Structure formats: C-alpha cells, structure tokens
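// run 5 | inverse folding | seed 20
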C-alpha cells in the first residue's frame, strides 16, 4: 500500500469570536489517501493555516524536508517508523511547536489507516481493551462578558451536564491572565466564588475540575488561592501558572492541597518528561493531535504509568479528537477521564456536525467503536460548508454577509483571507 495524496482541510465557522478562548471555532482536518482506496483521517488543535503550511511547505535540506513529500509514496502501515522519519527529516524547522501539531494530525490519520487496513479499532492496535470504562468529563466554557454572566452560565451548564449523565464537569474559569475568556480581568475572589456557586449547584458528590488557564503570576500566588479552593473539593486545578515555570509546578506539587494538571500545549513525549520529572505534575494532559499523534501520546501514557501519575487527555476540537482520546484512554491504566466538549453545550457547529457517527456516551461512559480505525466518518457537507477557502472566496466576491469570515466585535478586521487571492 502506498500513500498517494494528502488533503488538508482548513475549516472556519462564520462569526468566530477572537475574544473567546475556544479553539472549536476552526480546525485542520487531514485525509491521507492510498492506492488501495483506503483513507485515514486526523485533526490537530493549533492555528490551522500554519499547520497546513507545515505539511505542504517544500524543503531543500535533508533535515528540513516537506512532511507531505516524505509521506507521498510511503507505505502507511508503520506509523511509528513514519513518525521517526518525519521528525528527523523536519528537525531543523520542527522538533516542537506547529510542525509537531501538524505531524499529530498526520499520525492520527496513519493510525486510522492502519486500523482500516488491518480491520481493527485503533485502541486494539495500541494494546488497549474495551473492558475499561472511558469516562468523559463535560468541559464547560461559559458565555457572557462579565464575571456574573459567566458564573450564571457555568452554573447552568453544570446542571445541564449533570442532567445529561456526565459523571464529572470541568469549569473553564478563565477570568484572569493572558488566556482570559472574553477579555475579563477579575480578582482572585471571583474564581473562588464561581467554583463555590457551581459546587452548590451540583451538590457535594459530583466531580468538579477547574481550569484557570495560566491565571496566576507565580506558584506562591497560586498556592494561596489553591488553599482557599480546597474546601470546594476540586479533582484538579489545570494550568494555574505559566507552562514554562516548571520549578513553580514542582513547588505546587510539593505544597498544593489539590492535584495540579497541565500539558495541553506540550509537543512530543520529551516535553512531558520535563513536565513529569522537573515539574512533577500529578496529571498529564496530552492532546493527541498536538503532542504528535498516537505515536507520541502512547509514550506519554508510559511516562505516567511508570511514575504513578494520571493521564487526562486534552481535547477541544471535534468528534475526531474525542475519538482519538477515547482510543488512547483504552490503552492505558491511568486515565480516569477524557476531556469532552458536549456538542449540545458548544456554540461551534464544527463540534456537532463534523462527524457522521460520533462515539456515543451511554450512562456517562463512551462506547468504543467496533469499526476499524478511529471508527468515525467525516460529514462531507460540513467539510464543504466550513471550508475556509470557500468562505474566503465568497467574501472576496462579495456574496457573503460582511460579518462572514471576519471576527465578531471587530468590524474593522480584514474580511478577506490571503488564501482567496492566491489560489494554488
Ligand atoms: Mg486548558
């Protein structure tokens, strides 16, 4: 079997909001085609325009080669060997960052292909079992432009998540620091108040997780607030401080009364080695696409298993990434939850409409597919409808409403994407 073509679909919803900290508003979906008619699919969570160019860009140096050209003509059935080839062949420009995110989409698609070729679901290829329950937690991003509105929204979404059968929910309390949702900059007391309101809404026996998204300037500052959050019984607090402050994370590990989680941005298992050994993180959060695909994510699972840490995969894109997280979770003994954006509680149609046969959640547990590969199929209508090339061309031709393709709240933002003016 040989790889014959790689399609890179940049997807974008109309009326996206640049002030929101939601990466469900765009996507890069890749399809790897073969001469035997099988196609693998993958996605990654980074700037999709950059990631597409990481795949397509040409190269002239033996360690700065084109990812696409290294794959064309190759046998797709050994993804780990191809990962090493892509990593080495792009090392001068890659190693970390967007190139690894792009490789993650490709690697996800290669494992999907391998599963389809061998008629096995990916989790079985990873050595996993369907005997472990895969428990999704509902990841809840509030609406609203004030602290009060976001608190009300989170309380309401907590109640809904619980009513929908989710066994746990994560509060995105992103009201401070550079990752703040809708530009809020609130005080630390507001974080405690929001968590307290949500705890009161769901009662004492429901699992709540909290993401504060790099809110606090130092570990010592964070510790003071973590002490005050502890009585609200939080399973973990995610990314309390800057991700490069690994010594700060080690200090938190030593003194925090609550587990600390991080890793959503990390690329390759080597970055997780740093998080685990220097940062001493309790909970590692690889995003299958960003970390470099299953080939890298499975190594992160080994790192966690050997050190008695937990894995809780990050996922904020679509049902493709959720399927990838579920397959990964089935292949490790240390994964209590996977991140899950409930389609009903997400504003993005890419979350709800990109896949035809999303893995089902029954009694709060994800049902692993018996179908080969990832076990999901793309909705070609959605792929076409949210294609950025289509929306850009429409705006350029003046056939779309003026807000289409331009950021909400930014009337002066440029409405035409460069892609439309430079067709390939
Ligand atoms: Mg996060």
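// decoded
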């Amino acid at each position: 079997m040989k790889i014959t073509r790689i399609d890179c679909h940049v997807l974008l919803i109309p009326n996206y909001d640049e002030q929101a900290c939601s990466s469900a508003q765009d996507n890069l979906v890749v399809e790897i085609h073969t001469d035997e008619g099988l196609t693998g699919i993958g996605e990654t969570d980074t700037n999709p325009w950059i990631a597409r160019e990481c795949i397509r860009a040409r190269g002239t140096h033996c360690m700065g080669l084109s990812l696409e050209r290294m794959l064309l003509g190759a046998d797709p059935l050994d993804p780990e060997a191809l990962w090493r080839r892509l990593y080495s062949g792009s090392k001068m420009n890659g190693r970390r960052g967007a190139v690894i995110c792009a490789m993650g989409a490709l690697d996800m698609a290669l494992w999907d292909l391998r599963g389809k070729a061998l008629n096995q679901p990916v989790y079985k290829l990873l050595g996993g079992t369907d005997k472990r329950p895969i428990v999704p937690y509902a990841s809840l991003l509030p609406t609203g432009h004030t602290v009060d509105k976001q608190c009300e929204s989170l309380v309401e979404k907590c109640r809904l998540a619980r009513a929908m059968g989710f066994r746990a929910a994560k509060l995105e309390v992103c009201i401070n620091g550079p990752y703040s949702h809708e530009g809020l900059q609130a005080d630390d007391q507001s974080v405690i108040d929001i968590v307290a309101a949500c705890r009161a809404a769901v009662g004492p026996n429901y699992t709540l997780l909290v993401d504060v998204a790099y809110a606090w300037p130092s570990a010592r500052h964070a510790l003071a607030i973590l002490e005050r959050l502890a009585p609200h019984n939080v399973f973990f607090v995610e990314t309390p401080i800057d991700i490069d402050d690994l010594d700060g994370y080690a200090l938190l590990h030593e003194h925090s009364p609550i587990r600390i989680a991080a890793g959503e941005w990390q690329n390759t298992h080597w970055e997780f080695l740093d998080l685990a050994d220097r940062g001493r993180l309790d909970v590692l959060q690889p995003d299958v696409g960003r970390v470099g695909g299953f080939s890298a994510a499975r190594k992160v699972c080994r790192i966690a298993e050997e050190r008695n840490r937990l894995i809780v995969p990050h996922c904020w894109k679509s049902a493709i990434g959720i399927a990838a997280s579920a397959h990964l979770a089935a292949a490790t003994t240390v994964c209590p939850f996977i991140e899950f954006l409930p389609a009903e509680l997400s504003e993005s149609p890419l979350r709800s409409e990109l896949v035809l046969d999303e893995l089902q959640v029954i009694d709060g547990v994800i049902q692993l597919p018996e179908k080969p590969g990832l076990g999901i199929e793309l909705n070609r209508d959605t792929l076409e409808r949210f294609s950025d090339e289509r929306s850009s061309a429409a705006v350029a031709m003046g056939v779309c409403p003026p807000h289409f393709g331009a950021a909400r709240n930014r009337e002066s933002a440029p409405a035409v994407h460069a892609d439309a003016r430079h067709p390939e």
